[in-house]
Amino acid sequence: NAGVMQNPRHLVRRRGQEARLRCSPVKGHSHVYWYRQLPEEGLKFMVYLQKENIIDESGMPKERFSAEFPKEGPSILRIQQVVRGDSAAYFCASSPDSPDEQFFGPGTRLTVL
Amino acid sequence: AQSVSQHNHHVILSEAASLELGCNYSYGGTVNLFWYVQYPGQHLQLLLKYFSGDPLVKGIKGFEAEFIKSKFSFNLRKPSVQWSDTAEYFCAVKTGGYNKLIFGAGTRLAVHP
């Protein structure tokens, strides 16, 4: 009974490189959420997607960040030209069609050198 | 803007002590309320949730929380903590028709044997 899978678990990038974070939701879940946790802070909502659609991206930085959830395959959070301030833990969550509860993955810890 | 406040950032208790973690939110409309726990090295897990009905909610592992609408609060309690309760605890709110969760900054609980 696989939960939310995220990979990689740890990602190291140099400034200016691209980071791609992957999230496979619980089987049968069609809603995916991305959250970011900076050191000593709580999780902050970034984006909410359903299959092939972005529903709410009110928490996404305006530049360099994008997300997708294609018809087939995992959801991808992409960060272009990373900066040191992007270092954080990025959590993905998924929920079923009646989204009363979100199930979280283990997170990807991004370190930008 | 909606926000969630967790008053205690670090709590240290001895085993068998009683626990109460505070959570207040700022939103005047309908809310769904959650407590999540993150054990060391693990992903977030749902402890309990409140949607409607009895304001005293019982969750897993002996935890409970009480929704007090007039105080905009949803405090987490456990009558007798164990060493295995050492973890970080997050209060979260879902408001209106939005699916995103708004998290508090978290409370780190350390239980000493």
Q: Would you summarize the structure shown here?
A:
The complex is a heterodimer of chains A (113) and B (113). Chain A has no helices and 11 strands.
Structural class of chain A: mainly beta
> What's the total helix number of chain A?
0
* Mean pLDDT reading of chain A: 93
Report the order of strands and helices of chain B: EEEEEEEEEEEE
Low-confidence stretches of chain A: none
Q: Give the number of helices of chain B.
A: 0
> Low-confidence parts of chain B lasting 5 or more residues at pLDDT below 50?
none
Protein architecture, described:
The complex is a heterodimer of chains A (113) and B (113). Chain A is mostly beta strands. Helix content of chain A is 0%, strand content 50%. Chain B contains no helices and twelve strands. Chain B has strands at 3-5, 10-14, 19-21, 24-26, 31-38, 45-50, 56-58, 64-68, 73-78, 87-95, 102-103, 107-112. In chain B, the strands form three sheets. In chain B, strands 2, 5, 6, 10, 11 and 12 form a six-stranded mixed β-sheet that branches. Chain B has a four-stranded antiparallel β-sheet with strand order 3-9-8-7, with no helix packed on it. Chain B has a two-stranded antiparallel ribbon with strand order 1-4. Chain B is globular.
Key attributes of the depicted protein:
heterodimer, A: about 110 residues, mainly beta, 7-stranded mixed β-sheet, 4-stranded antiparallel β-sheet, B: about 110 residues, 6-stranded mixed β-sheet, 12 strands, about 50% strand, globular
Topology:
The complex is a heterodimer of chains A (113) and B (113).
Chain A lengths: L4 E3 L2 E4 L5 E6 L6 E7 L5 E8 L2 E4 L8 E4 L6 E5 L8 E8 L7 E2 L3 E5 L1
Parallel strand pairs in A: 2-11
Antiparallel strand pairs in A: 1-3, 3-8, 4-5, 4-9, 5-6, 7-8, 9-10, 9-11
Chain B lengths: L2 E3 L4 E5 L4 E3 L2 E3 L4 E8 L6 E6 L5 E3 L5 E5 L4 E6 L8 E9 L6 E2 L3 E6 L1
Parallel strand pairs in B: 2-12
Antiparallel strand pairs in B: 1-4, 3-9, 5-6, 5-10, 7-8, 8-9, 10-11, 10-12
